[in-house]
Amino acid sequence: MFLAGGRDVAGNDSIRTGSLVDCLLTTPAAFEADYAVQPQTYAKEVTKGRGDKKTTTTVEMPWTNQSNTCRAWADEQRKAGRQVISYKQYREAQDIAQAVRHKQPAWNSAITLGQLIDACEGQLVVSATWTEDGVEVPCRCMIDLARGIDGDQMPILYDLKTSQECKPRKFAYSIRDYGYDIQAWMYSSMVAAAIGYEGPIRFGFIVVRNTKPFLVATYVCSEGTLRAGETRFRDSMAAYVAGLKNGFAGYTTGFEEI
What we know:
alpha+beta, six-stranded mixed β-sheet, about 40% helix, about 260 residues, Lambda Exonuclease, Chain A
């Protein structure tokens, strides 16, 4: 079982589209502090003529990293701790975030996902310790959205995903292939330990396709998915601790034909 460590508010420093969408949806107030959107143009002085006929005018030029002005601006943003993103990245992330916010989930058509998100706590970090065969393994996770963890209602956690495909069968494959079931069981168990909650904590996914028209789907993990995640988590931890104690064997024991 997990031993609670605590929770706090997390930042966001990835420039991947998914992380930009997460920031816009869960911590929009932090966007300007964490990111700098690259302008589309920059001002350049152009001089023409000679002598008395010499004139200097300022013209708007397309943004280019070949310009000293553009490079200096980018360096200044990075020194201030901001991630520089292109205007195209920003607009795409905004469009995806709006598609999510406007979605009316089938299980409650009276609200939008935007209203649900606004009612949640966002970007929480939970720390805990897992003990396996006498070895304490520190664990840390970031929760995109959470409801009910400080109240009397049943807690539920949500994870935002951008995906190439969000149809039920396709996303079920993603859950298996990318270990989202492990994530769901691990996160819900860590939060339960952190808040001292003995009942089940539900875990849902808000999935949005990362290409137009940015279709959105909402899912909640079944008991079977969580049980599968627990089994895979325990097996992984056992293998990890065994490797720490005895050395990691790797994927092969010799040169195998492939």
